[in-house]
Design a protein that fits this description.
This protein is of the alpha/beta class and 323 residues long. Helices cover 35% and strands 17% of the residues. The strands form three sheets. The chain has a seven-stranded parallel sheet with strand order 1-2-3-4-5-6-8, sandwiched between helices. It has a two-stranded antiparallel sheet with strand order 7-9. The relative contact order is 0.14.
Amino acid sequence: MAMSFAAPPESWLGRPYYALDAYLKNTCGHKCYKIALDARMTCPNRDGTLGDRGCIFCSAGGSGDFAVSGADIQAQLEAGLALFGDKKVGRHYIAYFQSYTNTYAPLPRLRSLYTEALEHPLVCGISIATRPDCLPEPVLGLLAELRRAYPDKFIWLELGLQTSHEKTARLIRRGYTLPCFERAMEDLRGLDIPVIVHVILGLPGETRAEMLETIGYLNTQRPFGVKLQLLHVLEGTDLAKLYREGRFSVLDREEYLEILINCLERLSPDTVVHRVTGDGPKKLLIAPAWSGDKRGVLNSLHRKMRLENAFQGKYYRADGFTT
């Protein structure tokens, strides 16, 4: 059962929330970095199965605009490693299958891609971004098979929930309902595969109370991790059209920090926080412009949380949460 604390525990290494960096240092004994990969897949929201325009916020890169380039996974891993140069930043790396839907391909291809990454001597595990409606039994079987074959490496799944509210899900063209998400969570829990859930703060029409309701819902699903992502308006998306028509406004920096802190205070302290902001690619970013200063946002967040004695799980309760 999850527990709440009177103050952040020492295992969080000085942060007011349980950051991925602290989790990896506690688990692996050292810092690890992600290398974002492009497995050249597509998505049912783009190939005509559900639609051909993607989610309204998703760029042409399938949310993988920072993935390294390369002809194959091995080449991309080497290119990613080269970005770190000779810096002593950590001894291992996470192969992050980021672009589009990374379980949406024939099984032999998936087995080859995942195995190639897991075989790399500097890779400590893989993180696979996908959709809950793209986890059929054969794919689940493959994940179970790989867990047995590589017991010394981890396999994480990342699912894009974005919101617990069906009206918003329809607006953003998510393409699946909450019961679908819940089945995927149950299936992955049964395989003992950790799940990281993506949540977007600031979606059109959502109130602060509704964003907190999504965190309350997330607590009931008990994920391993969460990515709390600021809504970005990127060039070439349908969201950009809505923004330019004045049909919604983006959060300013202070609004985002306040909502983010509210969310963290209500999030289960057991949940590892993999992200608290984000920075869209400068060549595509329309708004908010302030999000480009990622370090400044993080520094402001940590300072504000210290001043307010705010920390993850402060208002979390095992039998519910306050709004």
